[in-house]
Amino acid sequence: MSGVAVVTIAHGRHGHLAAQHRALARGTHLPDHYVVVAMDDPAIVDRRDGDLASRVVRTGRGPAGALPLAAARNLGVRTALDAGADVVVLLDVDCLAGAGLVAAYADVVRAHPGSVWSGPVTYLPPAPATGYPDDPSALAAWDDPHPARPHPAPGELLESADPDLFWSLSFALAAGTWQRTGGFCEDYVGYGGEDTDFARTVLAAGVGLGWVGGARAYHQHHPVSSPPVEHVDDILRNGRIFRARWGHWPMEGWLAAFEERGLVRRHHDDWVRTAAPSDARAKETA
To answer: What family is reported (predicted)?
Structure first.
């Protein structure tokens, strides 16, 4: 096996996906494979930008109409491995790859295949009228990695054994390491919990976690809810799965914020729904 694959999962976000493709096509090292998993989105099709072509594979929705984020990542990685990749980079559809991201991940994974490696992510301001630059080297002007995560400088590596610091926006690992971990737990459907679960699975498998400063990504701006009230039901369902697997609730900061808004309440060692998000927003604006 040889070659580097980038795997992205997407539903909607077509403009962000096209911008990601442009950035990858103009990096210092083109991926050998670019796999896009379209989740219930027939509008996402194979396309080419310069010398980089994407390959689209498809999946539907999970139970209750939720997007199967965990299963979609597993499908994307399986597709990449079947194509012969020995290094797999998983990149969120909102993330633009810095010019050296693919090269930095390829180098560190091949040199240190016993760990899962993450790179710093900068959250970009709204795009100017002309859009974000197509040249990924120009993104460095915005470089300001998220302060809640480790952010080593380019050329630096940092080991981190804290699974709560892992996130699925941007990370890479060797084919054999993926197989050793077993991938994402597909019991999780919809938003929240599956990436923190994966980090604990990684550590339980005897695999390390690390951060590589050269693999810098830039998260394209889009409106968000804080806390993500539209995902309350996903977070409650996935939180119960996480508690059953690991003995405690994840995402407790969000749960506390939902409780303040009257959306959920504690019931012994469980969290239960008390109101719909629209009800809570109405109370906030009344």
So the answer is: Belongs to the glycosyltransferase 2 family.
How far CA 115 is from CA of 111, 146, 173, 178, 183, in Å, comes to 10, 22, 7, 10, 14
Tokens of 32: 């050998």
Contact at 8 Å (CB) between 27 and 106? no
Domain boundaries, the chain: 4-219, 229-285
Question: pTM of the full predicted structure?
Answer: 0.93
Contact 219, 124 (CB under 8 A): yes
pLDDT digits (tens, 9 = 90+) for 140-163: 999 999 999 999 999 999 998 899
Bridge pairing between strands 170-174 and 115-118: antiparallel
Query: If you count them, how many residues does the chain have?
Result: 286
Fold of the 4-219 domain? Spore Coat Polysaccharide Biosynthesis Protein SpsA; Chain A (3.90.550)
